[in-house]
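At your convenience, could you comment on the folded chain following this short note?
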Amino acid sequence: MKEVFLYDTTLRDGNQDRKITLSLADKLQIARLLDSFGFDYIEGGWPNPSNPTDEEFFKRIQELPLTHAKIAAFGSTRRPKVLPENDPLLQALVNSRAKVKTIFGKSWDLHVTEVIRTTLEENLDMIESSVRYLKESSEEVIFDAEHFFDGYKANPGYALETLKSAALGGADFIVLCDTNGGTLTWELEEILKDVKNVVKTPIGIHVHNDCGLSVANSLAAVRAGATMVQGVVNGYGERCGNADLTTITADLLFKMKAKLFCEKNMKNLRKMSLALDQIVNLPSNIQAPYVGDAAFAHKGGAHIDGVMKVARSFEHVDPHTVGNDRVFVTSDQAGGSLVVEKVRELLGVDVDKKDPKVQKLLHSLKERENAGWHFDSAEASFEMLVYRTLGKFTEPFQVENYRVIEDKNLEGISVSQASVKLRINDEVSHQVSEGDGPVNALDAALRKALVPYYPYMKNVRLDDFKVRVLGSNVGSDAHVRVWSTFGDEDSEWHAAGVSTNIIEASWLALIDGLSYKMYKESLKKVAK
């Protein structure tokens, strides 16, 4: 099977999901995550003066040391009767300094005459001249043929002419878009045959899920000759969503034997999927193929018996290949094998599942997972629970008490004040700080108490903080999960806390996040 390039558009098309609004920090964090997994292209957004977040993203992304992915800036062809060099949106693409430019153009004659209201001939020139102009400042230019399949059904000759214009302009990829998501799989395959007979430029596919066929259509396009697949991790997106790149990646590798750069990182597929859910602050789909909590869950007699005898009798792939694990719903063995494997990798030594400490760890993990901790996306909290339970971590401080006071002054401005009292090396460190909200105040007071004893703590940042309501209770009686991202000059890590008290949940996440840093620093001292 040929090599297939994976083009992620979570930061742009995924951000059009009505439940998602990505901040600049979110977008940068997601970009790092997607790059570390091994996607080939990451579409950063649409840089233009009316979109300051995306403009700033393209400035900041230049500072990140990405390992593989190419960053693409998204935009449209020039406007009718405007030269490319005078078009402000094309200029914004050039100014983004992105090495890859992706522009969409109209391939459905209905859109040409009724939406942008120009002539069919002018539209062809808009496509060719825009691609040619952007080639001067780009390593690659990708042309997205918007509404291509609807356009082909209405006027096949003209739809194909739009692709020829993009090829004439020098496009490196021509991506066929099922923008309305209404094309059936067998229709798509037949249309691809005609396209391959007319266009020699490499073909890509970009489909939406309005018929529930986006994954199937993406795979069918690859089978018909496409060598680029555009999609969104977890299938976020407008209306019914985009093609789910999580599922597509696994299907391409395991079912179609395609060559993918990210193959070596497939054991991180579930981790990446869950981390994206945390960043966008949406609950994970437990029935998501490959990565969902229930993807390899077996309940009841015959299935469990069959899996225990011959796993492949009831599992289409080994769950460990995507970082998941089989779960026996009626058994106490749920998740145990994968946890023990993770602990072995973490500690670098063999551990016995029957060891009382390991059994205690498995019990604690199961209890906390059931309560909503979700350790797959909170690796710092997972590691700290392992170190503490197995006696690998000596607490560097004891918490004597903490308190948060919320006050509103005469001007109506809310002020948070936190006090923290820690015992460190038989000394008491009692500090008070104000902040923009209780968590910010707690974080500042905690850091203030620790820095005199551990100076490296001043370099630790709290980069992200999200809260999600859990469980069946509602309102003020609900459990909440706090998920936090920490970072320093070397790395970033994630911690979680769960409680009915949002302050306590925040405190637990803070303690885990900072303790994780302290443990890593202690390992450096031992190494020296």
Q: What stands out?
A: The first helix runs from residue 24 to 37. The CA atoms of residues 1 and 480 lie 46 Å apart.
